[in-house]
Amino acid sequence: MFYNSEILLYIIVDFKRESNILQRIIIIAGPSGVGKTTVSKYLTEKYHIPRVVTHTTRPIRKGEIPGKSYYFENDKSFKKLHFFEHVKYGEYQYGSSKEALEKAWKKNDLVSLIVETDGVKSYLEKLGKQVYFIYLTVSDFSVLKKRLLARGDQASEIDKRLNSYEFKRDLHLSDELAKEAHVLNNDNWKETAKKIDEIIAKLDNE
Ligand SMILES: Nc1nc2c(ncn2[C@@H]2O[C@H](COP(=O)(O)OP(=O)(O)O)[C@@H](O)[C@H]2O)c(=O)[nH]1
Ligand SMILES: Nc1ncnc2c1ncn2[C@@H]1O[C@H](COP(=O)(O)OP(=O)(O)O)[C@@H](O)[C@H]1O
Predict the structure, then answer these.
(1) Can you list the domains of the chain with their CATH numbers?
(2) What positions does the domain Guanylate kinase-like occupy (predicted)?
(3) pLDDT given for residue 20 in this prediction
(4) Which residue of 47, 119, 144, 175 shows the fewest CB atoms closer than 10 Å?
């Protein structure tokens, strides 16, 4: 009897894996400086939730680690990659691969990914209910520039970023994405961390 129920449990777990019910992805979006990387790091450090590493042609920033923050590419190497989705943001290319997603899912059934809002749409279309979409925002957009300066970004890069079409677009959500989003205000990190803890507890119980 005990043996049979063990087999049954194995079949259920295996079925869930096969049908991808267990594999989920927390997608984090929002404007530059809002705290996407900070949230992703918190998920990794506190909950061992790995981040799907994406590719970019933008220059590496102070404090970033190649292969961990991003895979840093040039225009030629970027063209050779096989992407799940890719976009131009400002003057640089960004893209995520199915291989990187599978690699992260091999480590853990719950992973995180940072993308801009067109990327969010692609993931929602392709992965549907496996996606938990967090949109980060702040009450006063003027803090974003201050945070980018405090992060040590170059002033010239900050100006280009803040004036880009994509940055301005991602200050707000389209109606279509708003329906799917869990909006999190990140004015205050302690409060944000508490809200993330609640989200993880909820996801663990689903
Ligand atoms: N669609 C898509 N967006 C990405 C990808 N990787 C990063 N991004 C987005 O590209 C934008 C610029 O990223 P980054 O240069 O690191 O600037 P940050 O927002 O200031 O940290 C952000 O909105 C990221 O979410 C990707 O693989 N696909
Ligand atoms: N709630 C917050 N209050 C103040 N500073 C924050 C907060 N959240 C993140 N930061 C800081 O703001 C800067 C930008 O955060 P980051 O996570 O890199 O943003 P993003 O990845 O969205 O561009 C970092 O220096 C980070 O430490």
Answers:
(1) 20-52+108-205 (3.40.50.300)
(2) 23-201
(3) 54
(4) 175
Mutate to test the pocket of ligand 2, among 34, 36, 38 (most ligand atoms within 8 A of CB): 38
pLDDT at 21: 59
Give the model's pLDDT for residue 205: 85
Beta bridge partners of 95: 55, 86
Residues of the chain with pLDDT under 50: 12-13, 15-16
Alpha-carbon span 86 to 97, nearest angstrom: 9
- Ligand 2 touching residue 188 (CB < 6 A): yes
pLDDT of residue 101: 95
Q: What pTM value is reported for the model?
A: 0.92
8-state DSSP, 129 = G
